[in-house]
Amino acid sequence: MKKTFRTLLAAAMALSLAACANNTAKPADDNTGAEKTALEQIKERGYLIIGTEGNWSPWTYHDEKTNELTGFDVEVGKEIAKALGVEARFEEAAWESLLAGVDSGRFDIICNGVGYTDERALSYEFSDPYVYTRKVLIVSSDNDTIKTFEDLNGKTTANSSGSTYAAIAEEYGAKVEYIDTFGETITLLTQGRIDATINSEVSYLDYLSQHPDAPVKIVAQSEGESVCYPVKKGETELRDAVNAALAELRSSGRLAELSEQFFGGDITNK
């Protein structure tokens, strides 16, 4: 009886171990989706998740009449999704959370006038440049004391938290007040609550087109800056697909057409 019991126990343990081995193997088969690239997952789900602010005209904003999200980056984002064979789905967020959203997987890509920097390139895959912009130093029309970026030392500026504009102002010794929109910045400037602001030339020109009597002026500007689309670090397949879409938009003239529509000129070439 003892021998029979031991034999049965050994057989039962062997069957149990085999079952465990089989159970261990199954999750690996079921988990193959986790190994798919971002591009594969995008095509499988059928839509591209695009992070954008939605309050920075003419890059990304809501039409005053229809309240629909539009802007240069919004329309280019739609074209990129179309080239990938999927739908474009936009999620709006504050600037300071956009890059973090790519890190966490909330967004596949950011379409929001993101300037290329060597520091950012350490953490993200950047597309080829699709437009080139200049940073401008803006002051009130009656300000004659600030004429260069160096004059910002000890002054107060306003910009979105985490933006390159805020970082540059701080490098020049300015104290930065954090705000959300360019319109808020100009309001603070014209009210005398800040001394100056650094921002995109095209945003300034767009604002003037809507507020031609705004008492502000440009006193200094930088060289052209490359603007690119960032995706998660390591997702080179998605980056390459975005580059292919941008190359087609450039060669077809569609990219220049959108630039003319939203910026009033072609800024797609350096």
Outline the structure in words.
The chain has 270 residues and is an alpha/beta fold. The chain has two domains: 38-132 and 227-263, D-Maltodextrin-Binding Protein, domain 2 (3-Layer(aba) Sandwich); 135-222, D-Maltodextrin-Binding Protein, domain 2 (3-Layer(aba) Sandwich). Helices cover 44% and strands 21% of the residues. It contains ten helices and 15 strands. The protein has helices spanning 2-30, 38-45, 72-84, 95-104, 118-121, 164-171, 182-190, 201-210, 236-252, 254-263, and strands at 47-52, 61-62, 69-70, 87-92, 109-110, 114-115, 124-126, 131-133, 135-140, 156-159, 175-178, 197-200, 216-221, 225-228, 230-232. Strands 4-1-5 form a three-stranded parallel sheet. Strands 6-14-8 form a three-stranded antiparallel sheet, with no helix packed on it. Helix 3 (72-84) crosses helix 9. The longest helix has 29 residues, at 2-30. The radius of gyration is 26 Å and the shape is globular. The termini are far apart.
Which helices and strands, and how do they pair?
Elements (H helix, E strand, L loop, with lengths): L1 H29 L7 H8 L1 E6 L8 E2 L6 E2 L1 H13 L2 E6 L2 H10 L4 E2 L3 E2 L2 H4 L2 E3 L4 E3 L1 E6 L15 E4 L4 H8 L3 E4 L3 H9 L6 E4 H10 L5 E6 L3 E4 L1 E3 L3 H17 L1 H10 L7
Parallel strand pairs: 1-4, 1-5, 10-11
Antiparallel strand pairs: 2-3, 6-14, 7-15, 8-14, 9-12, 9-13
